[in-house]
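Objective 1.3, modelling of assemblies. Example input:
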Amino acid sequence: MAMSSALLTDHYELTMLQAALDSGAAHHRAVFEVFARHLPLGRRYGVVAGTGRVLDALADFRFGEAELAFLRERRVVNDRTLDFLASYRFSGDVYGYREGECYFPGSPIMVVDGTFAEAVLLETLILSILNHDSAVASAASRMTHAAGDRPIIEMGSRRTHERAAVASARAAYLAGFSSTSNLMAGSVYGVPTAGTSAHAFTLLHGSEYDAFQAQIDSLGHDTTLLVDTYDVAKAVRTAVELAGPGLGAVRIDSGDLAVVAREVRKLLDGLGATKTRIVVTSDLDEYAIAALAAAPVDGYGVGTSVVTGSGAPTASMVYKLVAREDGEGVLRPVAKKSVGKPSRGGRKDAFRVVEDGVAAAELVTTAPGAPAPEGARPLLHTLVRGGEIVGREPLDAARERHRASVAELPVLAHQLSQGDPVIPTLFS
Amino acid sequence: MAMSSALLTDHYELTMLQAALDSGAAHHRAVFEVFARHLPLGRRYGVVAGTGRVLDALADFRFGEAELAFLRERRVVNDRTLDFLASYRFSGDVYGYREGECYFPGSPIMVVDGTFAEAVLLETLILSILNHDSAVASAASRMTHAAGDRPIIEMGSRRTHERAAVASARAAYLAGFSSTSNLMAGSVYGVPTAGTSAHAFTLLHGSEYDAFQAQIDSLGHDTTLLVDTYDVAKAVRTAVELAGPGLGAVRIDSGDLAVVAREVRKLLDGLGATKTRIVVTSDLDEYAIAALAAAPVDGYGVGTSVVTGSGAPTASMVYKLVAREDGEGVLRPVAKKSVGKPSRGGRKDAFRVVEDGVAAAELVTTAPGAPAPEGARPLLHTLVRGGEIVGREPLDAARERHRASVAELPVLAHQLSQGDPVIPTLFS
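Predicted structure (tokens):
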């Protein structure tokens, strides 16, 4: 049932393939590496996300009749190339950081080792997924930390492309959000879904009283009532009058949230609804969440800022050839010399150096397969071996890994101000 | 073959539906309106995009067995609601701005007129599509104007979610880009596709000479050679030596593009390759394009900035109930009073007031169906009538409409500095 992912690819990958098939270099072994030259916007760390989705997309990377017919009609490539694509199966190896792991500038987040022909085609698809999902997870992780023990619902679907919304919900959950409003993310990835109510529901009814009554009748006292359609204080009184002191929660979506939350808490407590929770929404980001730390808030709903990466909607990872087989069958490091965009040649390995339980450095070596240095955690794991996908894992494993990886960072990692990466990347 | 779009929906839309079915209000007529309270980031105008995709998604908005099973297992809604969803078909009307039309704060970009039950479910999907596609088209339009007669290739697929990439290519083309690197956009939407070559292709071969020879042999002299892998001047000489003065184009992807372009132009002309075009890429946005106006550049490739909306990755449109039927069957305007987020009640109509061929105002009225004021162009068109989709049109029609709509704006619209909307929105 899955749609082919094969055309989620840039035109030039196919024309390069054609030229390499014609020159004979296409079947030489080639190693590509995904890395970011820098973190976005003075961030202290990044979060790897999307790896699992890359593996799903790789399984669906097949040129079927429809894809081949398009390429033939548009004359994108010649017949020899179409023949190659018709039987395309990635048969190489992929290594990568596991999802949820933190990363830093130069971290070899994914390594694709195959023939040039097989590996060059995957550039766009791999980068699309990792750049998007990592941007969302990196923002979400900061918000999760700012929120402390308070849960955050991801509710940004309406602020991003409809399919990106599903991936965003997955990435935010991986980085510590408690749930999402997006039903597809619940269905496809098992992310818990949640929701409150909209102003439209209140406006639909003859009065706020009627609307609250209808919601409570249908959804029970544990529901979350939206109290800012008209007058907040009046709405809170109506809510407790109708639901009783066992009302689940109220949501505030406008105004000075810290001030309003304090007023609402006082009001709820005065009405005996001491267990009724207060959920706040309204263009929250990590800074706004941090600023509400002292306010009597029990949960946050975050939309736009998380799905757009809170100012950094893409992780700016690149996919670069770092080694290729020469005419004698020897794998040799390669690197371009473009001004301002140099790359480091050679197949890499990577380790997180940890001292006394605290991350101290990202160690990137060009001796793949060498044992981990003392006190260092290997970061590259086998995801695909000889074309077979072996790196799948439950989303909750990534969520738990992220929790542990972030907990290991120096405390400076959690400063929201702009700064340098919290640990250095050492190349050896 | 199309996948159901029905779960691209927020949890709360279904629970509101349940409560409204239980209260009896679900089948009251309701009018929802999509609008933006403001343009992003001091922009002078916005561009409507995504309308055609909304219509496609609406046709696929069906709750099939898989969707219902998920909702049942997760107990998202009760059985009565599941029964309603099983036979869900939108049977109302949708009006909207045509794709490519410019919009301003308060423009009623889409109006959904149906029962509350039918219309409330579409909130997230409609907003996801319009917010994403309009953000991309709004940025692309500025770039197109900055580029003047020079073509721009959209090549940002790797910097955004893999499916958002396809929609981005469509939106950028609609707003004047000449082509895209994204093959799926070529296949699904007929956008012309194009590409050059990557550094990996050069690095794969034993030398730049061998790489260029391979590319020319396979793709012909009209190909675009990437000349900044090692030394630009040397690469240009090699390129012309191998392809002859009829070489199609060279691409520069690094360095000070204006300076390098001048050097390359001089070099090409000296070698007799006076018709060889120069294409530049490397984190270009509308400002960088404008700054290259005087440089000898023949085309641009734009990636990150266009797919991320050049600083405004979402158009911040909202979907608000503006009118609903009361107990006596009368349609009444409604509006919330939330602090800082007021809405204007009542079903709207909209016109572009044009004086001497120049747009003068956006006129928004609450008298739908009244004739257009003199010199005003009606902006709301019927897209869906009684559930039947009637508003489909070829993408090129939207592209042509955009060209005309932008051409009609006051020249101030094209200032890249931040400012107010270029025409006022008048409510009457």
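Chain B has two domains: 11-136+312-423, 137-311.
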